[in-house]
Specification:
With 105 residues, the protein is α+β, with helices and mostly antiparallel strands. Helix content is 21%, strand content 40%. A hairpin with a 2-residue loop joins β1 and β2.
């Protein structure tokens, strides 16, 4: 095989593996629970700071000796990253009022 053909084959293989792995990514709870609903990019405030997170809602039950009890809905947030800070006034910045003068020494 020529070098150019080898690089082409490698690039196709890498693209196939990347697409397959991203298609198989399924949201899950912290212990692999299946989400009854999920969302990405959910805004959340943690300790006064804005974050963008993935959200997974699932049902969790207590089990003991074959009995299932105390089932409840749990919301789990993961992959939280700091949200971008937008400038005030919807992105419009105003120049300061007044006359600007050059400082002289």
């Amino acid at each position: 095989m020529t070098m150019r053909l080898q690089i082409g084959v490698l690039a196709m293989w890498l693209a196939t593996v990347t697409l397959a792995s991203s298609a198989l990514a399924v949201p899950a709870g912290p212990n692999g629970e299946t989400c009854s609903s999920s969302a990405t990019g959910v805004k959340r405030t943690i300790q006064g700071k804005e974050y963008s997170c993935d959200k997974c809602v699932f049902t969790k039950c207590d089990t003991s000796g074959g009995e299932i009890s105390n089932c409840r809905t749990v919301t789990h947030y993961s992959n939280c990253v700091a949200a971008l800070v937008k400038p005030p006034l919807g992105g419009i910045l105003k120049a300061p009022s007044g006359v600007l003068k050059r400082k002289t020494d």
